[in-house]
Every structure is written in structure tokens, then in C-alpha cells.
Amino acid sequence: MGLCYQRTKAIAFVAHLSLLVVCITHAGCAHRDVKVTGEWRPANALDATPQPIHDAPTVQYISTPLDPSLRSLLSRWSKQGEVALDYRASSDFSLSVDAANIRATSLEGGIAALNRIYMQSGVDIRLEGAVVQVTPRVPMESNPRKKTTRSSKRKSKR
Q: How many Å apart are CA 66 and CA 95, to the nearest integer?
């Protein structure tokens, strides 16, 4: 009698376990539809009219946190624009807030913006052909002739 009781108990346990597995499986299938929000479109949807696809991404000439100085920024820009860099300035310069805000789509535009910023620091930055040139700015000299005033002429006549 003890053996039959254990066998009956084992069969009841397996039956209950099977019923539990079936219930959990069916509960997993009974879910609400997912509400998809935002912009999305089906994977294989075709446009009604042809749309242009830009092959080459637009190159942007910007300053990044990886650019610690003017020379490193111009070095990266010259590689990006496939031109040479001729840096003849006697010193390097840190990047200013104005330089960090440059967003140019052409190398010429970026260099013109840098030239306006660093002009007061005594640096001339320009693009000559396929070379970015950085040279010391020659200060504008005043008229080399000494201006004479009327009072100095009067003194000399006396």
C-alpha cells in the first residue's frame, strides 16, 4: 500500500507540473499588441516617387575636444581636405571659444573664420592652392616720413 501511494503521488505531481507548464506557456502567448510610436516604416516599403540618396556625407570643418591647439586643428583639417600644411608661425596657439564654435562646410570657409579670430594674435592663416599656410602677420607700418607740425616749423625759423 505504501508503494502505490507513492506512485499515485508521483503521477499527481507530474500531472500538476504539466498543467502548470501548459498554463504558463499559454499565458505568455496572451499579450496586448505593442503600441509603436515615433517615426518608423516597414522594412520592405518602397517610396511612391524616387528620393535622392546622398552618396558622400557632407564634410564639416569643426573643432573637437581632441584639438588642443591651432596647429593640431589645422593639421587635422588639412588631412581632411587633402591639402598640405605649412606652419611657419613661431608659436602655437590655444583654441578660443570662437574657434570652438566654427561650423564650416568648406575648408576655405573654416580657414577664413580662423584667420578672423587669430588675426589679432599676429598670425595669418590662408589657403594658397593646395597648401594651408600659417605665417606671422606683418604689422601695418605707418608712414615712414616724419610728420612735421606747424609749431616745429616756427621753431626752426627762429
A: 11
